[in-house]
Amino acid sequence: MSRSNSVPATPFEATITDLGHDGRGVARIDGKALFVSGALLGERVMARLRKRHRHFDEAEVVEVIEPSPHRVEPRCRHFAECSGCSLQHLDAEAQIAAKQRVLAENFERIGKVAPAQWLPPLTGEPWAYRRKGRLSVRHVLKKGRVLVGFREETNPRFVADIQQCEVLHPAIGPRIGLLAELVNGLDAVDAIAQIEFAGGDDTMALVFRHLQPLGEADLAALTAFGQKHALAIYLQPGNNSSVHPLWPAQPRLAFRIASDDARFADVELEFEPLDFVQVNANMNQRMVAHAMALLDPQPTDRVLDLFCGLGNFTLPIARRVAEVVGVEGEHGLVQRAAQNAARNGIDNARFHVANLFEDQRTSDWARTPWDKVLLDPPRAGADQLLAYLPHRQTRRVVYVSCHPASLARDAGILVNQHGFTLASAGVMDMFPHTAHVESIALFER
């Protein structure tokens, strides 16, 4: 293949020797890495170059010459165009094995650690699972209509032309085309920037971000759509604090976390439509139960829950221990966590607002000796916290991670600087058909 800066249109043959962390196949051409969209490990394909970079190139599959035994037909008819999923062409067992391999490689390469035991992967229903997300909206004059959906796989500047989504909640997935028709009929068709969706156990909400005030006719159309499809409609004319309901007047978003132990009552968490909640409701139930088993909370334990959000882990922990403290950086989430505790009759949970990416070692909660700690940080991980936590009295840490590289780095810190062992770790398939790796790890003294 030519090394000139021009991108040749002629397809070329490539053998895929690895699966990248973003779900693309990886080949090497003249020693240079080539990331091939639509290709799987072990396949021989004809590929077309898309874009050159200094250290790697990008291509797409034109033809599969020798398919992987794990290749399957994608369920979604928009799979090739939409960037929402990258692994629908790989069978479910191979998907989870690839994610486990990514986690293991990160532990070895970054953290220089390995778990004493690999936990069985936590999996659930792979379709119609996503209850939270953001849909792009674009009025395309050349097409004479509005597109609603995720970005194109080949060109992220454009919105994919889709009518339905197989991984979104049933209240949303089959209605992508109807949402596009709704926006297309509004007077303010060019003012709708995005639509966020958030679902509780009983209510699915849509948040319409609009860049100019909406007229009475548009408000009536949005209300009628919500009434027809049993969807709560919110408007967002400005920043996140501007979100307010249009219909009904007081919608209620909430989800229940069922206890897997009859001795402890369930908890129910209310939330606002832009609050962070786990996107996969079924997997969240299983994840919380999994975390409880690893944390092994006892009646005399005092537990610290960091990056606690709405109290997703804090409140189930509170049912089982003497005291739990949750710490979170977003004031609104902390306020709602405290309200959720009161609503569930929980009086042994306290919450604090603190930026956990700044030094908090002088805070009372940071100086307190906790028996156990649970961490659920964002992608950046928790290395700054681990400079001063956990204390020597802490004998068990459960770490829930949405980014294997930051977990691996932090595992190295816990093991090499704090004297823990990495007792067990495993992946949780929170985002089936994507390359996203959610994982959980147990550290013990």
Q: What low-confidence regions span 5 or more consecutive residues with pLDDT below 50? A: none
Number of strands: 22
Averaged pLDDT, please? 96
What percent of residues are in strands? 25-35%
Helix content: 10-25%
Structure, described:
- It catalyses: uridine(1939) in 23S rRNA + S-adenosyl-L-methionine = 5-methyluridine(1939) in 23S rRNA + S-adenosyl-L-homocysteine + H(+).
- [4Fe-4S] cluster binds at residues 76, 82, 85, 165.
- By secondary structure, the chain is of the alpha/beta class.
- Helices cover 21% and strands 28% of the residues.
- The chain contains 8 helices and 22 strands.
- It has helices spanning 92-111, 176-184, 216-229, 281-295, 314-318, 331-343, 364-367, 404-416, and strands spanning 12-15, 18-19, 25-29, 32-37, 44-52, 56-66, 117-118, 132-140, 145-149, 192-199, 204-210, 232-236, 244-247, 254-257, 267-270, 302-306, 323-328, 349-353, 372-375, 396-401, 421-428, 438-444.
- Helix 3 links the parallel strand 11 and strand 12.
- The longest helix has 20 residues, at 92-111.
- The mean pLDDT is 96.
